[in-house]
Amino acid sequence: YSVEVVEDSDPDRSVGKGSPAGGVRAEVRVTNVTPQDSAVIACTATNAYGSHTHNMELKVQDVPEAPRDLRVTREGSRSVTVTWAAPPSPNTPITHYVIHLKTQTVSWESNSVRQLRTEGSSTSAVLEDLLPAKVFQRGESPSSEPLSLRTDGEAPSAAPVTVRAVGVSSREVQLTWAAPDPDTWNGQLLGYYTPPPLFLSPVGSGRSFSFDTVGVTGGGEESWTVGNLEKFTRYVFVLQAFNAKGPGPLSTEVFATTLEDVPEAPPEDVTCCPDLDAGGGLLVAAPRPPRPRTHHHVHADLHAHGRPYRGRDRSATVGDLERYSNYSVTVAAATRAGVGVSSPPVVCATEEDVPQAPRTIKVVMNGPNSVIVAWAAPQRAHGTVTKYILYRRAPPARDPIRRILPPQTLWLEVTDLASNHLYEFWVTSATRVGEGPASPVVSATPSATVSSGIYSVGGEVRAGRGTDVVLPCQHVGRPTPTLSWRRDNAPVTHDSRYEPQLDGGLLIRDCQRSDSGNYTCHASNRHGSDHVVYHAHRHGFYPNHQTKNINPNHQDEQRPPYSSSTPPPFLPSSNSPSPPAVPPAAVLLHSMGSTSTSVTVSWRHVDDGGAPVRKLTLTWRPDPGEWREVTLARHLTQYTLGELTCGTEYHLYLTSHNKIGPGAASEVITVRTKGSRPSPPPQHRLISVNTTAVTLRLTSWADQQCPIAHFSVRFRPSNQGLQMVSGRLPGSQKEYALGDLAPATSYELSVTAQNPAGETTAAYNFITLGLTGVGCSELPLLLPLLTTHTPLSITGPPPPKKPREKKTNLDQGVRIPTEALTEALQKGAPDGGAVGGRWRRPGHFFQITRRDGQYNEPTTPRFPARGL
Asked: Of these four, 123, 207, 571, 590, which has the most CB atoms within 10 Å of its CB?
């Protein structure tokens, strides 16, 4: 036999021949087979009688090739549908497909890679139980090309956590919270909704919330200060996280109470009257506290003649006051934060009482049968002195002799005394209530020897500055004493201002403060000496607006020298009116700080002018503005001027008043309340774009502690000069909608916000969505990256070079190729390829592509994306 085997030049194939007994043997061996080795092998045997052929079919089986043309046909928030083209597998039917799925941040070797199996006859699969707004990669085998996909977003599925609310002032509460778990964001968090001021609803009643908007800072713990709240009021707060798909669930309610503040109004209907049970006290009543603006428990802060008294009742007895004295009484409500506004002063008088004892008493010998007794008026008369009672007793007699004298008598010559006999004298004074205590007892023994004696009573001297005053030095003695005056141990030089008087007194003309000092009158003869001292302190001489010349010879020179008389002129007497005092000196005024609605100032008195301060006047005005005044209680040393305008300069000065009148004004200080012009939000927080309308979230503007008064909105198509104006929108308006816009059109937008501190205008550009709605679900996520509140310019086709890539820096303004945005997203590339554009800024990389009419977004960020 002859055997012919068709041979191949393939080195992996070899042909073997042999001659077994009784026949011929041949074989074909194929090594390293591949599917390409599949073939029909024919073995033909031939001899002299003919030939015979045997056909053998070789089929080489292998794993399938990678599926081709992977694409996403439908995207949802929790599932996507993918399709592919079946790979060639001629020798082996495909039994099933294995889909490997992972998130973008997980490696293929990770245990978290999911595997899904589908029937071999199917060329599509639904990937379910996915997380919203997540980027996934999928593939069938290591040799296939991974394909990135992103699920559609959903509203966040969890609320902010660790929400806390703390009152930080009487008008503000600070909210702090942490973002929910990133797996529950279901997209990029755009911000949080927080409620506006909301009073705590009654227990058991339904609550409804309206919300303000807070942006995402990305710094871990978020915070927001809610202002313009009511003082000392409990509030309830909730939060919601939101993304482009809407808000998530409400957080757990948290509660906070604003801090206490000083009461804003004075008590009403304040009355006072003498308290007969308390002697020299006053019964003060404030039956109506300043509710509802008290902001906490009330206690009275009563000031009477500069003396404070406190209590928690609505009436108080003020004791330990001077009898028969006028008091100016004010009452203020107070909280733990401080004392509030005082009520208008109410003038009250304490009851008359018996007087104190005369301040001093002295007796001087005037002959063998007479003496002169002199005394000073009581320090506190406690009423009008109606009489003096002089008591005389000659021991060992027990019962004294009383002599009643008129109230103007301050000395008396006592005659008809026995020579060389001891006598005791004392004096009392009386009012209509009764007789007061007695003065100390003095004694004297009349004698023919009369040494020098001065019966003028010294003491403190007070006189108006610029007036003339006489310091008396009434004296007796035989022989006539020699008199001399000294000032602070130095002899008084007699000149035109210091003149000695015939009766021994010293006349000081045109009194000045430089005349202060101790003045001493000395009298002496050969039998003895005596002296009297007058104390003229620095504040003893004050300006007098009614200057009166004093007659140094006021006393009647013809009267008998040893008879009863009225007191010598200007003998110190607390029972007679004091000379006028000087107005107070200017106070030192300081600023202690400010809030958005108040300014606190403090002050220190330098000199009250020698008379108690009766009231204070704070004069202030805004800049610009008219001067205004507020009267303050004299006991205050600081004051908070409230209900002011935020972000405004104020000028203030303070004037103190005493019985003379207003003193010099303090220096004018300038204080600015807190607050500044509104701050514009980024575009993604302000603008929500649709096909034919745009919604402006006006609450995204930051008022900078100064409430926004109103908004105004201007807008126009980018290619037109006509500008449309919204008119004046109230600052409380939360949203404003611009309707009747053209689809897929660029617009220029200008928003102005104004508050008392000024106004801010921000310019924006936006593009309405196309009519086809392609990409609508993703465009809200795209807009924050494509726009800022810096001007946005829309240009024509991209440059001829690299038409599929347009790079720019968003911080310098974005240029979006019109064709790349409209044609790529709506019509697609005519050749089925990819068109679009790229945008880059630090930390961001974004690309829009359209492949075979299918919108695929987003591609993998090259850098970690902030805000995407």
From this structure: 571
